[in-house]
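#help-structures

NK: newbie question. if I give both the sequence and a SMILES, will the prediction place the ligand too? trying with 6-phosphogluconic acid
OV: yes, paste both and it writes out the complex. here, I ran yours:
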Amino acid sequence: MTAGTPQLVVHRDKELMAQAAAARLITRIVDAQAARGTASVVLTGGRNGNALLAAIAASPARDAVDWARLDLWWGDERFVPAADPDRNAVQARGELLDRVPLDPARVHVMPASDGVHGSDVEAAAAAYAEELAKAAAPGARVRVPAFDVLLLGVGPDTHVASLFPEHPGIRETERTVVGVRGAPKPPPTRISLTLPAIRAAREVWLLAAGEDKADAVALALAGPGELQAPASGARGTGRTLWLLDRAAAARIPAQLYPPASA
Ligand SMILES: O=C(O)[C@H](O)[C@@H](O)[C@H](O)[C@H](O)COP(=O)(O)O
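OV: that's the protein plus ligand as structure tokens.
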């Protein structure tokens, strides 16, 4: 199996999926910190990403993480005021980030629409690209850190982060962050990492649960191409992992994955 080949893990239901993903993420962070002294994780918006964070908050094993030596980034953000409950960062704080001793300087939120860039979403995206570039390893081809784990929720249209089918952002090959206007999922204005930035991650984990994701998961794994199915273009340099519940996995051709785990 090559690094680009997705691995599928299918759980009984979305609650178990969130708990197992939380256990997996805690372990991955602890391992990265043991190996290199630090870890970096890219968070996703959406219900499944939030459920994963809530499961970490509820896990006694969360105390195994050295929270002060963890960098957090975002894969995408809704471009609304900083305190808006629609913000992915606000939701992440509510589920987990306010309950663990993170170093605030290592929590790299994407700019908000009431920040220094005002309503200029392109300037805001460029500022985030600059922040990522400053944290990149010297000589890195794509100017972002080598994220240990990059989380992505998968939308019912196969979008990931705020990269939607046939939208300009999914075509981006140079920039690491783009401003998005007219997104089909509200709110319409967003900031997103691009596929080149996503593919710089060591591990990309895609999360999908529920019957309404079954067609999207089957389509993305059939590999029609990233313009039509952005999720099919999301892969890590070392590993690409799809974390699913049975309902979301229901339409995957049986030959594509080993027997379900429970
Ligand atoms: O800002 C966002 O809305 C997201 O980052 C988006 O890409 C999300 O992850 C998917 O739409 C899946 O969302 P659910 O997990 O809620 O289905």
